[in-house]
Please model this.
Amino acid sequence: MSVVERAKGILLTPKTEWLVIEREPGDAAYLFTNYGAILAAIPAICEFIGMSIIGRHVPLMGFYRTGIVTGAVNAIVRYLLSFALVYVLAVVVDALAPMFGGQRNQPNALKLATYAMTPVWLAAALSLIPASDCWALLGSTASIYFGSVSPC
Model:
């Protein structure tokens, strides 16, 4: 399944999409290279463009633009931290599964953590628009919902 179709399924029909995801293997290399690597690049690239090329109006400071090198380094670090965040989230989900009546299963926890980040990664595209932080918050909130309907 393509990244676009998977993301669309998670956002528009999460209950049926999670049933499809449940039957798939939870191979970390596949999840990170074929899905996470693509979507995790969206926030990094958009933040780079928003902060280094477009710039922001900062109250009491005026217009602010990050330098290109600093922006690129920040984008790379943000991109790499996305993978660390997904992995830590998967470890936490796996550890907490028995407390919620589930079984410990690292591949399923990794699938849940990776695919539940979809709304967060997509909402980060709005960082191109000045003063769009409320949309990023909405994406984070949506991620909680989409993760909660998962049978994994």
Observations:
- The chain is about 70% helix and 5% strand.
